[in-house]
Amino acid sequence: MQRFLSRPTVSGWLLASPLTLVLTLFLVLPIVMIVIVSFWQATEFSIVPAFDFENYEFLFGSPVTYKVFLNTFKYAVITWACTLLIGFTVAYFLAFHVRSQTWQIALFLLCTIPFWTSNIIRMISWIPFLGRNGIANSALISAGVIDTPLDWLLYSDFAVILAFVHLYTLFMVVPIFNTMMRIDKSLIEAARDAGATGAQIMWNVIIPLSKPGIMIGTIFVVTLVMGDFITVRFMSGSQSANVGRLISNDIALLQYPSAAATAVVLLATVLIVIGLLLRFVDIRKEL
Amino acid sequence: MENAKLDLELVSLTKRYGTTVAVDAINHRFKPGTYACLLGPSGCGKSSTLRMIAGHEAVSDGSILLGGRDISALPPAKRGTAMMFQSYALFPHLSVTDNVAFSLKMKGVSSAERTAKAGEMLELVDMTAFGDRMPDQLSGGQQQRVALARALITRPQVLLLDEPLSALDPFLRIRMRSELKKLQRELGITFLHVTHGQDEALALADEIVVMNNAVIEQAGPAREVYNAPKTEFVARFMGGHNVVGLPEGTFAIRSDAVQVTGPGTGLVEASVTGIEYQGTHVSLNARIMGDQELVAQVPEAIFFNNPRQPGDRIGLTWETGQLHPLKA
Fold it and tell me: How distant is the Cα of A180 from the closest Cα of chain B, in angstroms?
């Protein structure tokens, strides 16, 4: 027994088994379950185990699906662009312009303060700010910038994206800051020695070397935005839809097979997006 | 301009960080086409001096002249200097060729032309076969050659080397230093090499500038600095010297100029405190009056003709011409 346990293959499997067990129970099995259910049949009052492509046929046959997926991509792309711009700038400032490490850590912690409250609270707190009679509108009116309140501030795509950017920018800041901190400062000096201007250093040295961080942040933001449903519901006032809302509506109507099919398609879409991203940048060095 | 030999001059060059003075009003003129070493212990200001010349550190006071032109306020690339960094600072995301061609790319030189120029430089450092490799696929010595090629492609008048050999293992260090010397002779430009190793400085330098506590202690040809140290610090730092206090003053004497004789026949009486066999010679430690320790390097054959043991009474003697008076 002792000898059996001390064989390298056996001990290797044993060491890996707790994690394997956890992942199987809580990741693989639920996904398998969703895939299975997505082939079941449902009527208004019953769910019948079956192997049927009905749900997928309905999903791919409906123009709503394409509209909603397109909308989801739109949110993802715009949110990605905004969080990248803000996240890169913040990370760059922290990594290259803040000289002392104490200040770097202090300012970095400052960035995380909004994360001490829950997502939903941070999101809902925009409502009194952006509303028709909210702080933003009354401030603009009293400043004389506008005469009538802006309608598009709340319950609009603008509000949805604003909330997304607010919620997820930190997921961009952290990985980019992390990669930037690993850039050898003498590389910047070497570039300057070779006559590079500030913009050239940014484009030829800092951005290429920050790519893995940018890519990790991108994966975070894109998956979070594509899987979200609550932000879209609250901030659009139920006027816009993304795939997450499609699924949640099906669930509310107890249409589990249909919801499962949509979930499978969403999962596949996100996996394809990540697969494409990983083809561009090798992030293994960062992990 | 291309091949004009320009001399580099430091005029009361000063660097202050807050209240600490890293470089204290140093003056020196480097003759064109020399291999000069800035030598000193860590924290002596040699690196700050080099970085000021390179333009990576602002000058607090004084100026740097290259061929009579004040370059102290110019950006690094406009100075006619190029720097080779201690850790080489090769761009990890660029191939060897792209690393070498980097400065040309920044100037907007066309792709074909810069590849050709980079090829010439790689040939100069014997790295032609590695143009497509990435820096992390190269050994330390190869990385250093690429860094050299990258610095030289800007056609600098002065090449600044910041402890260029410290990242290499001892064997490679000796090989690379002879290559550096050879390259300097071929190019005929000034190399300014910062190091804390006196053996490195002696092996390479036409001129050694010894720095300590933010000032230049002594500057001159390698042989002069080694043979005739002017201060106690230089004598001790260059090694191979005894600093001895005699009634007439403090002197430096090379330990291989100290001869061992029988008791009562030397200039000073001594007792042997230690013997170390070192191959070509034997290093004999002796204590003389005033509890001063002296080292005599005795050629191996002479020592074993008349071997001494620790505790033996001996006399030590030297030619008076070998004594170099030291400034306090």
Answer: 14
The DSSP code for B80 is T
Cross-strand pairs, B210: B39, B218
List Cβ neighbours of A93 (8 Å cut-off, separation of 6 or more). none
Question: B186: distance to nearest CA of chain A, Å?
Answer: 22
Superfamily for domain range B8-227:
P-loop containing nucleotide triphosphate hydrolases (3.40.50.300)
The structure's pTM equals 0.81
Mean per-residue pLDDT, A207-235:
91
Closest CA to B62 of B12, B121, B5, B28: B12
Class of domain B240-325: mainly beta
Q: What is the Cα–Cα distance from B93 to A281, expressed in whole angstroms? A: 12
Tell me whether residues B107 and A195 touch, CB distance under 8 A: yes
Q: Residue B2 has what pLDDT?
A: 42
Cβ atoms within 10 Å, residue A58 = 12
Which pair of structure tokens corresponds to residue B63? 């100026």
- Interface predicted TM-score (ipTM): 0.81
Give the minimum alpha-carbon distance from B163 to chain A in angstroms, rounded to a whole number: 14
CB distance B150 to B158 below 8 Å:
no
Q: How far is B79 from chain A (nearest CA, A)?
A: 10
Q: Does A208 touch chain B (CB under 8 A)?
A: yes
Which residues in chain B are contacts of A191 at CB distance < 8 A?
A: 91, 102, 106
Torsion sign (Cα): B262, B263, B267, B269: positive
User: At CB < 8 Å, which residues of chain B contact A?
Assistant: 54-56, 75-78, 82-83, 85-87, 89-93, 102-103, 105-107, 150-151, 154
**Poorest-confidence range of A2-11, B46-55, B286-295?**
A2-11
Q: Min CA distance, B152 vs chain A (Å)?
A: 10
Separation of first and last alpha carbons in chain A: 37
Q: Is A187 near chain B, with CB under 8 Å?
A: yes
Which residue bears the tokens 């979200």? A228
DSSP-based three-state secondary structure for A134: coil
* CB nearest B93 (choices: A191, A200, A209): A209
**CB contacts < 8 A (A, B):** 63
- Helices A157-181 & A101-112, crossing angle to 10 degrees? 150
Structure tokens at B297: 């390097």
Across the interface, whether the CB atoms of A184 and B75 are under 8 A apart is answered no
Per domain, the residue ranges of chain A are 65-286
Partners of B249 in beta bridges:
B246
Query: Mean pLDDT score of chain B, rounded to an integer?
Result: 90
Please report the pLDDT score of residue A150 as a whole number.
81
Percent share of chain B, pLDDT over 90: 55
> Does B85 sit within 8 Å of A189, measured CB to CB?
yes
pLDDT on residue A24: 94
What digits encode the pLDDT tens for the residues A237-285?
A: 878 888 888 899 888 888 889 999 999 999 999 999 999 988 877 766 6
Q: Which of A186, A188, A193 to mutate to test the interface with B (most CBs of B within 10 A)?
A: A193
Q: What is the chain A residue with the closest CA to B51?
A: A189
Q: What confidence score (pLDDT) does residue B217 get?
A: 92
Kindly list the domain boundaries of chain B, sorted by start residue.
8-227, 240-325
Q: What is the dihedral of CA A127, A128, A129, A132, to 10 degrees?
A: 90
CA angle (B145 as vertex; B141, B149 as ends), nearest 5: 170
Domain A65-286 class in CATH: mainly alpha
